[in-house]
Amino acid sequence: MSFIFFENYTEGWGTFFRIKEILCHKESKYQKIEIFESWDHGKVMVIDGAVMFTEKDEFTYHEMIVHVPMFSHPNPERILVIGGGDGGTVREILKHDTVKEVLLVEIDEVVIELAEKYFPQTTCELKNPKTKILVRDGIEFLKECQEAYFDLIIVDSTDPVGPAVGLFESDFYNACYRALKDDGILNVQSGSPYFQKDLIEKVKNTISMIFPIARVYIAGVPMYGGLWSFTIGSKKYDPKMGPVREDYKITSNLKYYNYDIHRGAFALPNYLRKGV
Ligand code: AG3
């Protein structure tokens, strides 16, 4: 006998995974976290019914949320990650030698604990001496953090529900702007181009009221049912112009990102281009 996990994106459409074994089911202060061994995508983490990542294709999302902004900056040294307690984003950031410090601010320590137990593949750099972890609400942290400190802020959040709602609001983006250096970059995951087009438009419009440069880009992320979007707010560098730095050593070991993908990711389908 086997079970099937469904994530519904609409009432009539979604993704599914055939489950081999349920490994963990935990209710934290903030959310419900489930981990299962899937039939052919390795282990899967689900939060409040939404797939966060699978072992098999987490590289698509993590490489694309990180390397596009990282290669758009000539010298990214201090990086802040909001959310992303599974460590996949931190792992990709630390592939860049320019990095001196990565601060991971995750609201839910249970996500970190469970990721450390079940996903060595994504948590492998959380013990790196350059990584610092703060278990705290990212919104609160940014209200108080030092001004003009970070080169890059990556918001690796869940969907805009529960504790993540505020991560899609203008007050939060303003706080990010303040925390970034005068050539800093903000990158946020901004949902599915197909099912959450309104969300992308809202995020893009809000960011473009705060940052001089605002860009949406996309990547194919099978575990989220197809295309996924990211929205960048940048003070100086235009990520759409392509990478400003090339480092063959990094990209030769990546499975998704390369310099052509970087340039091509900003080419949007017409149904999306109209709104953003
Ligand atoms: N970040 C979650 C992206 C949103 C997924 N949404 C969904 N499946 N409905 C994932 C965190 C990985 N570090």
Helical content class = 25-40%
Assess the beta-strand content as a share of residues: 25-35%
**Count of discrete domains:** 2
What average pLDDT do the residues reach?
A: 96
Which kinds of small molecule does this entry bind, naming each only once?
1-{4-[(3-aminopropyl)amino]butyl}guanidine
- CATH C-level label of the largest domain: Alpha Beta
Name the assembly state.
single chain
Strand sequence of the main sheet, in spatial order?
A: 8-7-6-9-10-12-11
Written description of the protein model:
The chain is α/β, with parallel strands linked by helices. The protein folds into two domains: 3-52, Spermidine synthase, tetramerisation domain (Spermidine Synthase, Chain: A, domain 2); 58-273, 3-Layer(aba) Sandwich (Rossmann fold), CATH 3.40.50. It has ten helices and twelve strands. The strands form two sheets. The protein has a seven-stranded mixed β-sheet, with helices on both faces. Strands 1-2-3-4-5 form a five-stranded antiparallel β-sheet, covered by helices on one side. The longest helix is centred in the first third of the chain and has 14 residues, at 58-71. It starts with a strand and ends with a helix.
